[in-house]
Every structure is written in C-alpha cells, then in structure tokens.
Please model this.
Amino acid sequence: MTEERVNRSPEGTESHDPAFPQALLAFMRQGWRDTALPVSPRPEVPNYAKRRAALSAAFPGETLVIPTGGEKTRANDTAFRFRPGTDFAYLTGDHAPDSVLVLHPTASGHEPVLYLRPHSSRQTDEFFRSRHGELWLGRRHTLAEKATELGLATADLDELDAALAGLAPARTRVLRGFDAQVDAAIRSYDGQRERGQPARDRELAIAISELRLVKDEWEIAQLQDAVDATVRGFEDVARALPTDRGVSERLLEGIFALRARHDGNDVGYGSILGAGEHATILHWVHNHGSTRPGELLLMDMGVENHHLYTADVTRVLPVSGRFTALQRQVYDIVYASQQAGIEFIRPGVAFKDVHLTCMRVLAEGLADLGLLPVSVDEAMDEKSAVYRRWTLHGFGHMLGIDVHDCTNARAEMYRDGTLGEGYVLTVEPGLYFQPEDELVPEELRGIGVRIEDDVLVTATGTVNLSAGLPRTAGDVETWLAEQREAGPRLPG
Model:
C-alpha cells in the first residue's frame, strides 16, 4: 500500500517538540564522542548478490528502483513497528526504513546502490530531534558501515532525488506502492496498467516474485529456524492451557507473541486463536473469546525470524485433553486430506492437482458424515463444488519471506503451474461447521478443524519442516499431556 514518506530533511520535527532555546542548542552540539559500530560482512551477503544478479539479467540496460517504504501511522503521531518491504529485504538484507535500492545499468549488468539515511552528524540538530534523532531512535550506520555489512555501495538518502531526476521513464522500472515520493519522481512510461500499476513496473514485481519461488539452502535454513521457534511457541501455549477451566484467547495469543519477539522478529501474521465455534471463522483475529473444557482450540500461528522468514502452522487441541468421538471423526478426515496432499507433492505435479487431491478426501469424508446432497463425483465437478460449503479455502500457498509468498507471480508460474524443487508451501485443508448451519446435525455445529504444515519440495518428494509438532489425533493428545506435565516456561 502507498504511504507518505517522512520528510527527508535531516531536521524533521514533531508537533510536540519544544522550542529549544539557543543556549541549549549550542550546548547540545558540543562534547560528543563518535564511535564506530563493530560491523563485518554478513555471511548471507553472497545470497543477496546472487538475487540482484538474477534480477539484473532479466532487465539489461534498464534502471530498477526498489524502495522499502517508511513507517506507517498507527494513530496520530505514533507508528507501527517498521517491517521492511519484502522485495527490498529479499534483495538487500537491509531492515532500515525509507531506504531505496537502485540498480544502475552498466555495460556488464548493473551497479547496485543503496540510498539510506546515514548516521547523523553532531554538527546539526537532527541527532537530538525526535523524528529521526538518534538520541530518540538509536545509532544508525554510517554509509561505510552499511556498505561493509551488506556488501554493496551506499549513498546518502538526500542524494536520491537527484539520482531519480535524470532517469528516462522508458528505461526505468519502479516497484511502486511503497514510497509515494519515488512513485511521483518517475512518471509512468505507458498508459497500460495491470492490477493498478503501470504494466512495465508490474513486470518488475512479477520478476522478483518469481525469483522467490525457489528457496536456496540459506532460505530453507531460515524457514526451518522460524518453524522451530514456532514449535516452541505452540509448546508454550499448550503448557499454559488448563484442562478444567477456561482462559482467554488473548492470553494464549500473548504467550505465543512473547516467544515470537524473543526468538524472532515478531509474529509473521496476526495469530488466530479460535476457541469453540470461533474455530469455524477462517481469519479469526479478534481473539476475545475463551476456551471451554470439552471444546476444541484452533491455533494458526507463525514466528517471523530475524531475517523475516515466517512459519505458518495450524494445530487443533482438545481442551479437555481428549477428542470426543465426533471431534476425532472430523479431525481424522482433515488429517487424511492433508496426508494425501503431502504424499502427492513432488516436482512436476500441478498445484491445482494437489488441491483436488486434498479436496476429494474432504468430500469423501463429508459423504461419510451424511452431509453431501450429491455423490462425491458430482460434488467434485467444477460446476457444482457443493462440498466447499464446509471448506471455503484452498489447500495451501507458497511460504517464505512473506506468509503468502510470491503473490505477484504469474498464474502459469504459481496457481496454474507445477511445483518445483526448492518450493516451500503450506498444506492446510480444513472443515468448518458453522453454528448457524442448519444443514448439519446440531452436534457438528461449531466444530472447526484445520491442520497446517510447512512443506519443502525435494527432488523425490517432500520434507515436512514442521514435523516437530504432532499431527494425528492420538499423537496430539499424547503431546498435549506431555506439555501440561512439563508446566509453563519462559523463553530463554
């Protein structure tokens, strides 16, 4: 989404800044020692360089502009915690707001330059004023420090406007929607638009998204790191879940959030804690309900690690410790669907066929429950699809540095394409029986089950990155009892 960039002027102020007297201003500018940050090249720098090289090869002779975006207003003059633009972070590894990566064309490819707001001089007032002041926000890198750390050339953000001013629109592509000033500085070359942006710029977004489809070894390690932290977070929640009384969904949300902030950067998305009938609401993020003994708790949560790669895992727990016979029947249908999908996945299979594999098992289960008004084959016909009354979403999605990764990829490379080695995707079928649904028996109403795992496509099949959490009904019951026996813990 588009946002207003904060003023590039080094002496930005806030409405609540005091009118400093001259004596204080003069006193503040003297007597400061400047120390260098202890930086060294990050070990993952070659990975970022390879990505930029691949993007360079796709657009020879053209200038490519990729902003990260700025802080987003939460309320009045307070901001949300900044999260870098995904494509920018994928190409640079930089996490600072307002920065812009420009790939300048050369005879042999491109020279990447990172434009950023550097460490502030003590000769101006900027370092102690509140908008960008380092006394308020912390020490920033110098240009040299950032160049050393990230392995690419850097320039002061104040030089960006001049660098953009001379660009020819016909030979420039911009990742639009992240920086309003960058968008305004480079006019669109043609009038054609796709998904709300110029077609040429859309091609840049597509190219980066499709590069992200295949994860390299370092990225897979980051995803495993995020998943491992997520497993610990699920354990934390299970250890705090009473068997004989209710607790608020928000308490459980907060327990997981503590793990996410301690072991990673943050949660990868708003955590879904659906107790009882809330489990039937696919994106339940209000989390203002409470657990109840005898009911189920659906937890859809993921840790975003320090390099911004996120897990996305869902488990359903019986609050009392044991599934009822009916709960287990529904759970087993969903498990069978997920297992069929995971076993079907391998390089070369169609994304849509994984979906159909999972959905047929769900439809067969719905028939066994006596709910389908037609045969399974009729329900699976694309002109019917009546089984989807109880399962509205697809089988899964790509996963990576975004929880819904690679969404700008062309349909033929993703939804209408085939899976390839190095892809990472979720497999997450579910069944949801709404409490108001009069076409299901009363005892089914309010039951929602989804099982979600993060799966790496290998040369011969799959690796379940989230296998550290149990999946079968019996294993879930055993695991839950073990967590409760271990008792609550703090991250450490």
Remarks:
- The first helix runs from residue 22 to 28.
- Residues 1-11 have pLDDT under 50 and may be disordered.
- The first strand starts at residue 63 and ends at 67.
- The two ends are 36 Å apart (CA to CA).
